[in-house]
Amino acid sequence: METTQPTTAFLPSALGLTLDDWVRWAEANGQPKFRARQIVEWLYQKRVTSFDDMTNLSRDLRDRLKRQFVPGLLPVVRAAGSNDTTRKFLFRLDDGRLIETVRIPANANFDGDRSGRITLCVSSQVGCAYACKFCASGLAGFTRNLEVGEIVGQVMSVEHETGESIRNIVFMGMGEPLANLTRLTKALEILNSDWGMNIGARHMTVSTSGLAPQIEKLAAIPRQIRLAISLHGATDKVRDQIMPVNKKYPIDRLFEALDTWGRHKKQMITFEYILIEGVNDSLEDAAELALRAKKLHAKVNLIPYNTVEGLQWKRPEKDQQEAFLAILSNANITATLRREKGHDIDAACGQLRLQEETAEGIIEKAV
Ligand code: SAH
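Above: the input record for the complex with S-adenosyl-L-homocysteine. Below: its predicted structure, written as tokens.
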């Protein structure tokens, strides 16, 4: 029997427009400019979830909004964990794809920070094309970029679900944020602007596996956001083994881009460095890393490898982790050894996998 699929054109999310976009939209719809301010106020300050609640707009204007946009909160398919612990939200997108966003409480956040803050780890793509050999996200490949509204929507939706205000964001969820640079930049504007989510630029960290030209482009935007590099090896020899992106942008090219970054931004760069037994955890590796970090005045986050089902990598013994850290500390590098959180619910770094919803429930996408 033939079934005809209803053609549902997906409406864009209202959370994907900047104030300038709304001004243009108002003008195109024969409205005065100040309507743009009213709309963003309803969305980000008053937090209405329906266009009907935008009561200072005419009925006609509300209808236009309804015909052209969806309000943009993402439906939660599953929320694992508790408010005191790392908590993972699985959201459904309009096309049925699933993405994850991880809420990390202060005592567990990525810097070992104890300030009482919450950090949200946001996804930038469905899947990932970069295929780092140790990471679960790359296992099933790349599906698509997230839209601006889907990036902002993760933050809005977690605030909506928890009643909390998110003040810190790391782009360390699924995907390579710099491979979705145009949308990322727009999302950063919405998240950072006072008319939008008003999250301080210094409280937003973009993490990349090392896309040198895109780092240079992001350096040029006038926001003091932070940069984290998933380095994991201080030499081409090590990086070539575990990160295919290094073939395209070898370490020297990457560091050229980081120099450019340093000329534009005031904050220290962070190197993320997973400790993988027998791959990058020798004391010589530590010495190479110390040299690289010193030159750039970067700080280092050491992350004992989180096991990924189906992959053979292991974390080194505690003693080896400490010895590695000691070399950095003795070289006067600001370095931390990350305390592991969220491992039990597969929400730790590198454990976010592509998932699909089927009639049987949620399944991990076959590799
Ligand atoms: N693609 C970007 C954003 C993802 S961040 C980037 O690579 O930076 C996710 C972080 O988790 C990266 O630093 C990544 O290298 C790290 N990671 C991946 N697999 C991991 C694992 N199994 N254990 C610990 N960290 C891991």
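Notes for the reader.
DSSP finds eleven helices and 14 strands in the chain.
The chain has a mean pLDDT of 92.
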